[in-house]
Amino acid sequence: MTHTISRGKGSRTIRTAVAIGAATLGLVALSACEKPTPRATVTVGSDSVSTEATCFEEDKALTQDKVLSCVQKKTDTAITVGEGDMLRIGVDPEIAETGWVVFLGERPVVSEPIGKTYRSFSSDGLFSQANGTSSDKVQLSIVGYDGSKYRGGVWRIDLDREKD
C-alpha cells in the first residue's frame, strides 16, 4: 500500500498551525523562566554554602516591614560554625554595587553599607545573646542597603553552633 503526501492548501494550513504552535510554546517557556537572583555565600573553614535571595525586588526600595518579614522567613541553607572560626561572607558584584549590611536575627550588626564583594567576621560571641544566654542557631541575613534605603533583596543563611 502506498501513501501519498498532499501538497495542497490543507498541508500549508497544517504547517502554519504547527509553526504558530511551536512559536507560542517557545514564548510560554521563555516567560516561565525567571532570571536568577544574585547569590550570597558564607564560608567557614573549607565549608561553604550559597543561596539566592529569600526576597528580591530588583532596583526597588524595601520597606523595613518587608525586610523584617524576609529576615524571619525559613531557609534550608545552613552552615556549622565553631567558636573562634572565621566567618567569610561573599556577595555577587551586583549586591556590592548597591551596598549591603548584615543582620543577626532581626538586628543589624553592621550599620554602614559594605561596598565590597567580601567581608570577614570572627565568630567569637556569635551564639551569645544580650541577656547572657546562648543559642545553638543564629539567623544570618545579608540585606541590600545603599546607606539610606534597603534595596534589592534579603539573603538568609542559618548558622548552626558546632557541637563539642
UniProtKB/TrEMBL annotation:
PROSITE patterns: PROKAR_LIPOPROTEIN
Stated name of the protein: DUF2771 domain-containing protein
